Amino acid sequence: MHYHEAANFLFDLRRFGVDPGVESVQELLAAVDVSPNEGDGPAYVQVAGTNGKGSTARMVESALREAGLSVGLYTSPHLEHLTERVHVDGREMPRSAVAEFVEAAKPWLVDRAADGAPLTFFEVVTALGIWWFERAGVDVAVLEVGLGGELDATSAVDPIASAVTNVSLEHTGVLGDTVEEIAETKAHVAPVGRPLVTGTEGAALSTVRDVADEVGASGVITVGEDEWIGEGATGTADYAGGDDAASGVHPDVTVAYNGRITHQQAGVSVAAEGWAVDARIPLLGEHQAMNAGIACVLSRQIGDELGVDVGRGALERGLAKADWPGRFEVMSQSPLTVLDGAHNPEACETVTETLSTFEYDDCHLVVAAMHDKDTVAMAAALPDDASVTTCEPVTDRAEDSEVLARTFEDAGYDDVRATGSVANALSMAREDADGDDALLVTGSLYAVAEARATWTRLQVPKRVDSIDEAETVLRDAQVSEPGIWRMRGKADHRVLHTRVQQRQAEYLKQEMLSLDGECSASALRSGGELHDVVLSGTMAQFKRLAEKLQGQPWGLSGLGERSVSSWGSSTARQSATCRGHRIGRRSWAC
């Protein structure tokens, strides 16, 4: 089985709705000979919460690796490729392993679907991650919980350590209508016989304590700021011990955000009885101090369980290396361009607060959202003096851009417009932004992923001088076997290999073929990840393609310009140096 066949099978599972429960995942794991709760396999960690769980999981993974452990990391969603969801020691799961898993699991999954009990995409991909961690023999695997906790697919394992970062209203149709109900399902990730770590406060914390006791956890470790308010407290108070401590005014572990140091780095402090950490982290925002505190407590707890010293040095080095794409990620400083996947009101408030620590003139928002989100409250939480361009990422769950635009107009925004693709919205906002302005892409990680691809997509112009070389290029791009056979004899001159969104791939193919050039796209059918595209033609055809891409609606103008520019530079020079690597005269990466 090829990777594109496996990925297509997995993405097709998205048509099945959410069906909370862990039994199906456990049965699938058994079908592929994996028993995560038995034997000498990896230890598991769960990180649940409304916001911050991905960043926290990444920090834990990084700190444990610095302590010398082999660590798996499972997160969602992916930004560009399915394999991003599963890492072992910092390396993405190989595509060949995805194909191997699907080939083994597919007969069982087909039988289940035929019996009227199909598994969902998230359930199967979670099983994929656990299967790979068991195969890789990691010491510990950190799992970001998907939805809730008690019935989430990641709860197919028994964790040795767990956390609930915070709780606010989300997915009320599934998790409950109140903070207490949502906290109840999330707190069921509590590890039996061990403490649950949490950054929750007030009523949510009261519920977390009750559930932790119910499931047999040994207690709750609270993390918060010095002026944190726990359950039983009636107002803000500095820690003075005694009755204040008993009422929950002071957390067990205190955190402080020491401010932004650079446009990509901030300082945080974490302190508890007997230990402390001061670190610079590549994540901005006061909320990241809380995430760092929870990560430190979890990492120390895991180290104690596994008999490994996770000391101050490992924690500080781990936090310093824990980058997390798409979470207040600064892509440019002129104009200040930020990508943040905030997708609920609380997260939008946080990104607005973090953006306010920068100096800028005007603010330009590129916003998309899923149709099940509280877009009214999200609009109220974002900078109210900004211009807004709404758009739709490639997913069936996306809110209509015109409906979203009306929401912002009703919220009092004066300059609002709607467009189709994320790439086009980003291009329009860039044209409007001056060097001293700020441009924020937010509202959905799907939108962030599509925007981010305009910076990160691979472009590899090269000369291909034989059928064997052409076949290698096409196979690397996941082109189907019939497609390879059709095009391998034609890709014998200038070739451009790039990665774009599905609808961009379709547009590129149509335009290149209209110029009598050649184009093959990967055999992926879904918009679930970037699609490889191989364009082949003469220099004149690439120049004409660049002209045709100018002003088109799918954000591809720069692609044609850069490809022609790259070919031009190759004519002028016999070799090129790109990203610090010397590349031969006939091919290079840019």
From TrEMBL:
SUPFAM superfamilies: MurD-like peptide ligases, catalytic domain, MurD-like peptide ligases, peptide-binding domain. It comes from the Archaea. Residues 326-444 form the Mur ligase C-terminal domain. Residues 134-297 form the Mur ligase central domain. It holds the Pfam family Mur_ligase_C. One of its GO terms (molecular function) is tetrahydrofolylpolyglutamate synthase activity. Keywords: ATP-binding, Ligase, Magnesium, Metal-binding, Nucleotide-binding. InterPro entries: Folylpolyglutamate_synth (IPR001645), Mur-like_cat_sf (IPR036565), Mur_ligase_C (IPR004101), Mur_ligase_C_dom_sf (IPR036615), Mur_ligase_cen (IPR013221). GO terms for cellular component: cytoplasm. The keyword Transit peptide does not apply. PANTHER family: DIHYDROFOLATE SYNTHETASE-RELATED, FOLYLPOLYGLUTAMATE SYNTHASE-RELATED. Belongs to the folylpolyglutamate synthase family. This is Bifunctional folylpolyglutamate synthase/ dihydrofolate synthase. It comes from Halolamina pelagica.
